């Protein structure tokens, strides 16, 4: 292209002066603008790297796929938008007290952590493979016991590398929540640190009947709330503090107020909430496994399409912290499996439609690795009924997997890689394979409407 896509996007968004906020997630460039009438959505959709554009109360979401989102966002900032990030305190994350605003906030807090979730999760997967090699072949290099008990130094080091992020996850979440509300992230560190360890208070009575101080109580939800409150209190105090005391007083008051609230309110309340959620979900998976699995897998792509799937990250993380794994997360991976199968069927059934085949080939690698947006926006959604058929394919796999005990020990490791982090790898692999096959069969025999296929026939992918 004669003009870089970042430059074109900036122009079609009304120029650098029209950008109020700019960020990216794994597959989307998220933009808030000052004047929406300056944005040319239709021309943005025509750009070769753009899969689709969505508009909601939080702004525009430009779907460009994995890798490209970060690259394009960075390029746009280099063109003169870097100052927008410095205005975080003046731009509230939650503009309205509604579900979209809450989901947007949750998404912003967890998005920076997703790559680390994925990397650390894959290390957990490798550790599982090595432990399996030790159990089967007795290879001492992979002995997972403590080094003092004769275990491998290599495995001890690997355990440190894989586990450190999850050990300090509550601190990371609290810092991110505080930063996203315009507060000092290191105050968030204090809130998250209190959740991780209550120190000498461990086991002492809180004054609440039946409740004692407990390190980790309330988990990621308590840390999330503590970080957000740190920002709110700090900003409130700053506005009412004279300049001569501005260095000391806001932090002092924030630590005292939010620290005590964390110990005596947030940890007990969110501890109770997490116990309730964990117990309810585990009961659901144990008693309504196949039906619950099918429903979760069928609905997951709809959540991804709306961009609210990250709202489940705190629940999945809390489950991992509570029981060691989350049985919820893998069902979303099977939804992606259904879409992979559906896309393969399209490529086989309509192989003469070169543009459709090119679209499938472009999104398939990401889909196999668990990133669904390229296939959603580039293939299944434009073809109408193919999208729900892909969801049904995932539901078939979800129903089968629901008969068995399984769960992921890490989040954001999905698709075929999910087999590495599942406590029942064979169960997960079977469920994923069934989803792919079901998606393929459903789409191959039902097919797409000719009118939908014509949109690909008449669209030259290289014309932009």
Physical arrangement of strands within the biggest beta sheet:
1-2-4-3
How widely separated are the two ends? 8 Å
SSE class: mainly alpha
**Uncertain segments:** 82-99, 458-464
Order of helices and strands: HEEHEEHHHHHHHHHHHHHHHH
Give the rounded overall mean pLDDT: 84
How big a fraction of the residues is strand?
Answer: under 5%
Number of helices: 18
Residue share in helix: 55-70%
E-strand count: 4
Rg measurement, Å: 24 Å
- Main beta sheet strand tally, sense and closure: 4 strands, antiparallel
So what's the overall shape?
Answer: globular
Instruction: Please indicate the count of domains.
Output: 4
Quick tags:
464 residues; phosphotransferase system; 5% strand; protein-N(PI)-phosphohistidine-sugar phosphotransferase activity; Gyrase A, domain 2; four-stranded antiparallel β-sheet; disordered C terminus; PTS sugar transporter subunit IIC; 4 domains; mainly alpha; 18 helices; transport
Report on the structure:
The chain crosses the membrane at residues 109-133, 153-174, 186-205, 211-233, 245-270, 290-308, 328-350, 362-379, 386-406, 426-446. Its main location: membrane. Strands 1-2-4-3 form a four-stranded antiparallel beta sheet. The protein starts with a helix and ends in a 7-residue tail after the last helix. It has four domains: 5-91, Gyrase A, domain 2 (2-Layer Sandwich), CATH 3.30.1360; 113-167, no CATH class; 169-287, no CATH class; 289-457, no CATH class. 60% of the residues lie in helices and 5% in strands. Helix 1 (5-12) crosses helix 3 and helix 8 (185-196) packs across helix 10 (249-287). The protein contains 18 helices and four strands.
């Amino acid at each position: 292209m004669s003009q870089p896509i970042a430059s074109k996007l900036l122009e079609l968004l009304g120029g650098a002066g029209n950008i109020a906020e700019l960020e990216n997630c794994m597959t989307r460039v998220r933009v808030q603008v000052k004047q929406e009438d300056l944005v040319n959505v239709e021309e943005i959709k025509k750009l070769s790297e753009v899969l689709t554009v969505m508009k909601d109360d939080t702004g525009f979401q430009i779907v460009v796929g994995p890798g490209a989102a970060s690259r394009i966002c960075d390029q746009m900032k280099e063109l003169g938008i870097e100052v927008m990030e410095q205005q975080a305190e003046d731009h509230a994350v939650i503009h309205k007290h509604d579900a979209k605003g809450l989901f947007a906030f949750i998404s912003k807090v967890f998005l920076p952590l997703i790559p680390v979730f994925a990397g650390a999760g894959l290390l957990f997967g490798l550790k599982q493979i090595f432990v399996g090699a030790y159990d089967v072949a007795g290879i001492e290099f992979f002995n997972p016991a403590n080094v003092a008990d004769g275990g491998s130094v290599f495995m001890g080091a690997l355990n440190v590398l894989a586990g450190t992020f999850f050990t300090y996850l509550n601190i990371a979440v609290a810092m991110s929540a505080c930063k996203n509300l315009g507060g000092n992230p290191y105050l968030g560190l204090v809130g998250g640190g209190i959740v991780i360890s209550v120190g000498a208070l461990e086991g002492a009575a809180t004054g609440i009947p039946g409740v004692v101080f407990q390190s980790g109580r309330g988990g990621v939800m308590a840390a999330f709330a503590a970080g957000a409150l740190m920002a709110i209190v700090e900003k409130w105090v700053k506005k009412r503090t004279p300049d001569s005391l501005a260095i000391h007083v806001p932090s002092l008051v924030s630590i005292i107020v939010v620290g005590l609230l964390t110990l005596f309110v947030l940890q007990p309340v969110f501890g109770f909430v997490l116990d309730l959620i964990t117990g309810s979900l585990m009961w659901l998976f144990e008693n309504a496994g196949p039906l619950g699995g099918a429903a979760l897998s069928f609905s997951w792509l709809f959540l991804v399409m709306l961009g609210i799937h990250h709202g489940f990250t705190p629940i999945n993380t809390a489950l991992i912290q509570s029981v060691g794994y989350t049985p919820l997360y893998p069902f979303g991976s099977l939804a992606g499996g259904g879409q992979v199968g559906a896309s393969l069927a399209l490529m086989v059934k309509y192989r003469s439609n070169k543009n459709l085949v090119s679209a499938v080939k472009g999104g398939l690698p990401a889909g196999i690795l668990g990133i669904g947006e390229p296939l959603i926006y580039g293939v299944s959604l434009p073809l109408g009924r193919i999208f729900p058929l892909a969801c049904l394919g995932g539901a078939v796999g979800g129903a089968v997997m629901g008969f068995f005990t399984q769960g992921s020990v890490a989040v954001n490791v999905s698709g075929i890689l999910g087999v590495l982090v599942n406590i029942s790898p064979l169960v997960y692999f079977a469920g994923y394979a069934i989803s792919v096959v079901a998606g393929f069969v459903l789409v191959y025999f039902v097919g797409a409407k000719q009118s939908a296929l014509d949109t690909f026939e008449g669209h030259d992918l290289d014309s932009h």
